[in-house]
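[job 4471] stage=fold_predict status=RUNNING
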Amino acid sequence: MRRSASLILSVAALLASSLADIRIYGPTALKDEFKANDYVIKSSVSNFGNIPYGQKILGRLYYNEENADGCNENKFITVDFTNDPDELITPIFLVNRGGCTFVTKVRNLETMGAAVVLIADNKAEDVNNIIMSDDSTGTGIRIPAMLIGKRDGKDLMNWFKQASPEQQKAAALAIEFESLKTADLVEWQYWFSSSDDRALDFFRDFEATDLRLQSNQYAKFTPHWVSYSFDYCDSKMKDDSCISYGKYCALDHQGTKILGRDIMMENLRERCIWELVEQKELSQRAFWDYMRVVHQLCYTTVNEDCSKNAVKDLQYSQEKIDNCVKNSFDKPGDASSDNRFMKEELAGWKQQQSGYWPLAVVNNEQYRGTINERNLRTAICQALTESYRDACNDVQIGVFSSEKITGTHLIMIVVGLLVINLLILAAFRFWQKKRERGDLQLQVHSAVSNYFAISERK
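[job 4471] inference complete, writing structure tokens
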């Protein structure tokens, strides 16, 4: 019941994390253009890059009509990073939507020196309902990007065109990124499919971090599996790509013989391993270990044989997993009947109203930005109540345990290192003396041999 309740999330709460306020900082002539909106521009943050939740950025605005869409990677928007309002180099680049993908233009502008990218929409629409999605090449982008309305973008650009060079240098914006909801225990979910390479890389990279967060009771993780319904497809497609006769489906894995049905069955096996974790028959680590091992063996082309090899290597009970899969169908063992686990997962996925995955949800808010170990760890720590954040951030430097490092601990570490050094020095001196004795014995034997050789000649 608790698991089912956790899947029902309000759409309003999920959309809340998509917002960031942009406030016109100066000059007065630019502020006057946005006086009616209290000098604020609404925006929607991208689903790639590094989104600094709960932080503020103050920077200078740049716009170059010769590279208005930011798609020309060889056309620098500016090389003049002086006159930043907080005396830190924080260039905010403004470009038009279109001409290339969101990811391409943001990557180009990051290379040019941008700290933040504002993209003006080319349609009159509510940007709060628009998500700038990753085109699968956004990995590695380390700056935030935001979509602003068509009218706001046009007003900024028109002002920039008629402003004097001195006024342009004074154009400054303050950007405030909304915080994720905070809690003493962060509950976060990860939506994925067993055939997605980005998800599998994430599981590999995040395993140690999650186990440390869990052991210190700062975060509670729940995995979820993505599927779709193919109710109106023909029988062959339902058989090849689905279980439960078209109710829960996945796209075939391109370039392999793995069909959507194989992917759904692997999703179900993984869901059953998680079920054993929830029933305390396996440890929390068991799920992460399985995800790592099964994809080391087969990467994204996981089939039943590969799964069994991973279970055997990890010494889990294959019988318990098989029984869980079998009994999850309304008619045990009949994969054409409804499945209670996938029914629950599909209902939760529909509640997310998301067109992209993998997807992370932190304290019931969809996370925006590139999902990697560093970014998500930072977001989870930021979502903790303030009294716990410093301890959570210890993960970043590898100092994360149930106790804080004290002066006594440091003294013990120093003493231990000193003892090790002394032992190494003693061993070296013993070896050196032994070698000297050996050399001396060799010299004595040589001298004695020479003496007898001389005596014999006499």
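[job 4471] summary: Confidence is low (pLDDT under 50) at residues 1-17, 397-406.
[job 4471] exit 0
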